[in-house]
Structures are given as C-alpha cells and as structure tokens.
Specification:
It catalyses: cyclobutadipyrimidine (in DNA) = 2 pyrimidine residues (in DNA). This is Deoxyribodipyrimidine photo-lyase. The chain has 469 residues and is mainly alpha-helical. It folds into three domains: 129 residues, HUPs (Rossmann fold, 3-Layer(aba) Sandwich); 122 residues, Alpha Horseshoe (Serine Threonine Protein Phosphatase 5, Tetratricopeptide repeat), CATH 1.25.40; 169 residues, Orthogonal Bundle (DNA Cyclobutane Dipyrimidine Photolyase, subunit A, domain 3), CATH 1.10.579. Helices cover 49% and strands 6% of the residues. Strands 3-2-1-4-5 form a five-stranded parallel beta sheet, sandwiched between helices. Helix 12 packs antiparallel against helix 13 and helix 17 packs antiparallel against helix 18. Bound molecules: flavin-adenine dinucleotide (FAD). The site of flavin-adenine dinucleotide (FAD) has 28 residues, from helix 11, helix 13, helix 16 and helix 18.
Length: 469
C-alpha cells in the first residue's frame, strides 16, 4: 500500500524530511491541497499564490521523474483538510501520512486536527521537524522561557547545533510506477509576466540562485546587504518561505564556502548565516507566543497605543506618494516586483508606524498582499520590530530619519531614480529630499509631514504609553 506525503510549504524532492522518510516505507503518493479561501483569509495575494502554484507544478514534474504521482485537491478552508486527507487515504488504501511541521497557529491547529482524526480511524500519521533546526520549545532560556531577544537565542542555537541536525537527506529513488495518475496542474492566478520572469519557481532555480549568491555576492554580503541599488543579498526568501530550498541546503553550502565552519570565518558568510537564524527565531516566537498569530502585539502594553485612523495617509504610503523618495521608491519596488529589499522594509515599516503613527497591522497586511516571499512569522516579526511592539523591538525612541537613511544607503540616488523616474533628472544628491519648487511640475508630492514633527508625535504617543503601563 502506498504512503501519502502531504506537501505544503516544502515544495522540493531533495532534503525533504517527510518525503525522505515516507519513501523508506515503500511507494509514495504526493498530495497538495489548495486552500484558497483560507489563503484569502490569511491575506496572501496573487504574487505569492502564483509562485506557490507554479512551485507545485514544478514539484509535480520532479516527482514524475521518480514515478511518484502528485495529486492536487481544492478544499477551501483548513477545517476541511482532515476529511479530505482521510478520504484520499481510503481511496488509495494508504496506511500512513507524512508531513513536515509548520509553526504558525492556524497551520499548527490544522495539523493537530489531522493527527487527531487519523488516530480516530487508526491510520498512522508522522509529523516531522524540517523547517527549523530545533523544534520550538527545545531552545529555552535558563528560566525555561521562550527567547524573546535574538542574540541569546542565536547563541543557544550555535551552542546546541549538532551535525545530525544539518544532515542533508537524499531525494527518494525512482519507484515502481503506480496505477495512480497525477492530477493536472492547478489553475494559477495571473500576475505580470515580469514577476514570473524575475522569480522562476522550483528547486533548480533556487539551487542556482544559492550557487550564484555564494560565488558572486556572499563575501561582500556584510557590507553590500544594506544598499538596495546593489544586488548584494541572495534573493532566496520566496524559495525559503515555500521550501523550494531548505535552510539546511543553504547552511551546508555556506559552511562549505567557509571551510566547514558555522561559527567563525568569512564575515560575509557569517552575517548571512545569522540571517537564516533570524528566520528560525521568528518561527519559534510565533509558536511560543501564539498571541502574535492572533493579531496581538508581542509587547502587550503597546495594545493601547493611540494609532491614527488616517486613510489618506495610509493610501499615500501604499501608493508611494508620501513625498519621501526612499519610502515611495521602496513601495513601488514592492508593488511592481513582489519583493522589497530588507533595509527598505525597515525604513517603510518605521515610516508607517512612527511617522504616520498608523497601526503596524495595516502594513503587515499590505506586505502580505504583495510580497512573493510573504511569510507570517518573518513578516509579523519584522513589522512588530519596526513598530517597537515586538520581540527584540527597536526601542520606541529610535526612529529612522528616512532622508538620512536614503543619503546613507542610496547615496547616489540610483535606487530612487530607478523607481521614481520623475526624480531621475535631478542631481543625485537632491533626490533624497527634493525641494518642492524643483519637482512641482513633475507631480511628485511634498512630504506628508515634516520629519521633526512626526518624530515628536510618535515619541509623545509612546511616552504616554510607557507612563500609563
Ligand atoms: P538575505 O539577506 O539573502 O538573507 C537570507 C535569508 O535569511 C532570507 O531569504 C530569509 O529567509 C532570511 N532572513 C533574512 N533577513 C531576515 C529577517 N530580518 N527576518 C527573518 N528572516 C530573515 N522575510 C520573509 O521571508 N518574508 C516576509 O514576509 C518578510 N517580511 C518582512 C517585513 C518587515 C517589515 C521586515 C523588516 C522584514 C521582513 N522579512 C521578511 C525579512 C527580510 O526582509 C527578508 O527575508 C529579506 O529581505 C529577503 O531577502 P533575501 O532573500 O535577499 O535575504
């Protein structure tokens, strides 16, 4: 009898724990469940769903080469998943189900419901750790709490990581063909073709990107990673968030380039490895503090902050019309490409939550709607960091000056010129904060609010909070 392998955000045949284990017990049938209503509720936009389903199609081709059929079923909500899987297991005569664990609350609850239902009908189910090195709860502070600050988390991670956690698992061997045929690829929402070209889906493309990054960019990563006009980072986030590449494959490749070391060596590689640990940190946070998955602030006293209800300002931010060129250029990068450079994610998130004093949840949702790498844990973590409501949060009095950030990280104004062609004719130094009379005929707006005024307003709002709490 075949074993059922349920793919979710682990769309690869290489180094896939659940698939590897499933294949040890005989023939495998893969299944992917489209949960379009649930995805809508989770705020995923067309960019991510398009990438996800292109990834499913690519996975289907890789599995077909191994004679593993891939079934695709649309189920709507997570609540319908257990019955869909049981039905499928019965149809195929499968006795066991394998999947890799996911840690945000809804996904966790969905999986627990599946485990429960399978037990009730005497079918075996195996849930594997794959997306992280440590199961949330394995790394705790001396007091037995979840870490809420990154640096000690990262130290504990380094202290406890053993080679067995980093071992790469082979893809299954080609199996004997089954009498089950694969389903046709699902219907994929359309997105501009430039987005599909920029982000080709599947594990081959992910592996190529990783090699290219390690050959060409990694050694300069520590310096180059903050400059959005330079291709200084790996641009692997969409692939990592849907599992078209594993964090182990990334770490192993980085270690090979670093003479086998994880803890010391090349500064660029060390900085990059650190970012992969940030990714894991936020997964632990959302499991350890599920309130963040329910839309609540990690720092509970910030729940009473008087966020402004300012629909016009919010629209200007979303549409890249704030009058702060670096913010506007970044927002246009997001809406045009489905991705935004990390430095700019911090700048625009702080601008929305501090300068405009608009609830970070608005920004989190807008990012989710557009990001091709939209990932609940990292997105929520990043937004709450910027808004000073989260773990390891930026102290509330630290408010980036967008103009200074622009001068520092886009000194030649190249990034601004790329996304705001209306400012491209200005001398580079003037692109950061163009005088209104210079740009009035281009239609570029005056700043929504002066930096000093906005800063003071945010400080006052946070100060009253601290006193009141
Ligand atoms: P690299 O610099 O090459 O880093 C390698 C990998 O490490 C990334 O692909 C990513 O998986 C991980 N990583 C890097 N930085 C972070 C970080 N700060 N937190 C967690 N993981 C990190 N990342 C997402 O994957 N999805 C999101 O939805 C997301 N939303 C964000 C929202 C805000 C407000 C902020 C400030 C950050 C967010 N990030 C998110 C983190 C980070 O911006 C992206 O992971 C990074 O820009 C992706 O580019 P890259 O692949 O070239 O990264």
């Amino acid at each position: 009898n075949p074993t059922l392998m349920w793919f979710r955000s682990d769309l690869r045949v290489n180094d896939n724990t659940a698939l590897h284990r499933a294949a040890r017990n005989g023939p495998v049938v893969g299944v992917f469940l489209g949960c379009r209503e649930q995805w809508k509720q989770h705020g995923h936009g067309a960019n991510k769903i398009n990438f996800w389903l292109r990834g499913v199609a690519d996975l289907g081709e890789s599995l077909a080469r191994l004679d593993i059929p891939l079934l695709y079923r649309d189920v709507g909500h997570f609540s319908e998943v257990p019955e869909a899987l049981i039905g499928l297991a019965r149809e195929l005569g499968a006795e066991a189900l394998h999947f890799n664990r996911e840690y945000p609350l809804n996904e966790w609850q969905r999986d627990e419901a599946v485990i429960e239902r399978f037990k009730q009908v005497d079918l075996r189910v195996h849930a594997h750790r794959d997306a992280v090195a440590f199961t949330p709860g394995e790394l705790l502070t001396g007091k037995g709490d979840f870490y809420s600050v990154f640096t000690p988390f990262s130290r504990a991670w380094h202290r406890q990581i053993e080679p067995s956690r980093l071992e790469l698992l082979d893809a299954p061997k080609r199996q004997q063909a089954l009498e089950v045929s694969s389903d046709p690829s699902p219907e994929i929402p359309t997105v501009p073709s430039c987005i599909e070209q920029q982000w080709p889906a599947g594990e081959t493309h992910a592996a190529n990107r990783l090699s290219r990054f390690l050959e060409q960019r990694a050694r300069h990563y520590a310096e180059a990673r903050d400059y959005p006009a330079q291709p200084g980072t790996s641009e692997l986030s969409p692939y990592l968030s849907l599992g078209m590449i594993s964090w182990r494959q990334c770490l192993q490749a980085a270690m090979s380039a670093n003479q086998g070391s994880l803890g010391e060596g090349d500064a660029g590689l060390m900085a990059w490895i650190n970012e992969l640990i940030w990714r894991e940190f936020y997964q632990h946070v959302c499991w350890g503090f599920p309130r963040v998955c329910r839309g609540h602030a990690f720092q509970q006293h910030t729940e009473t902050l008087a966020w402004r209800d300012a629909p016009n300002d919010l629209a200007a931010w979303r549409e890249g019309r704030t009058g702060y060129p670096i913010v506007d250029a970044a927002m246009r990068q997001l809406t045009n490409t489905g991705w935004m450079h990390n430095r700019l994610r911090m700048v625009v998130a702080m601008f929305l939550s501090k300068h405009l004093l608009i609830d970070w949840r608005e920004g989190e949702a807008f990012f989710m709607q557009h990001l091709i790498d939209g990932d609940f844990a990292s997105n929520n973590g990043g937004w709450q960091w910027a808004a000073s409501t989260g773990t390891d949060a930026a102290p509330w009095f630290r408010i980036f000056n967008p103009t200074t950030q622009s001068q520092r990280f886009d000194a030649d104004g190249n990034f601004i010129a790329e996304w705001l062609p209306e400012l491209a004719d200005l001398p580079p130094r003037m692109r950061h904060a163009p005088a209104t009379d210079l740009v009035s005929d281009t239609g570029y707006p005056a700043p929504l609010i002066e930096h000093k005024v906005a800063r003071q307003r945010a400080l006052d709002a946070f100060k009253s909070l601290t006193k009141g709490s």
